[in-house]
C-alpha cells in the first residue's frame, strides 16, 4: 500500500478492512484497532490471540455476506462487533471487491444511532 494511501486510511474515523480472495486479512486501519481496543502492546499474548480469532470470525462473516449478495458491491448490511472490553457495537458495512479480488470493507459505528432509534420507538 502506498504511503499516502496508508496515511489517509489510518486517519479515517471508520473501520477499514482489506481481505484477500482466500479470506486472509491484508490490512486493518488504526481506527479499527482503536475502536475495538485491539493492540498487541496493551494485551498479553493469549488475549491478543483471542482478539485475532474474533477478527477472523468477523472477516469470514463479511466475506460470506458479500458472497450471499452475489453483487459487485454489498452495501448496507449490519453486523454486531464485539470489542476487546466485551461491548457490542453495531457496524454498518459497505463492501466492494477490487480488480485483484480483494474485498474492501468500510464499517461505520451506528450503535448510538440504533440506540436512539430504539428509545424513540419505546416512547411512541
Question: Can you describe this structure?
Answer:
- The protein is 44% helix and 29% strand.
- The protein has helices spanning 3-11, 30-36, 45-69, 111-123, and strands at 15-19, 25-28, 73-82, 88-97, 103-109.
- The chain has a five-stranded antiparallel beta sheet, with helices on both faces.
- Strand 1 (15-19) and strand 2 form a beta hairpin.
- The protein is globular.
Summarize the structure.
By secondary structure, the protein is of the alpha+beta class. It has helices at 3-11, 30-36, 45-69, 111-123; strands at 15-19, 25-28, 73-82, 88-97, 103-109. The chain has a 5-stranded antiparallel beta sheet, sandwiched between helices.
Question: How do the helices and strands line up, and which of them pair or pack?
Answer:
Layout: H1 3-11, E1 15-19, E2 25-28, H2 30-36, H3 45-69, E3 73-82, E4 88-97, E5 103-109, H4 111-123
Antiparallel strand pairs: 1-2, 1-5, 3-4, 4-5
State the distance separating the first and last CA atoms: 49 Å
β-strand amount: 25-35%
The helix count comes to: 4
User: What do the pLDDT scores average to?
Assistant: 76
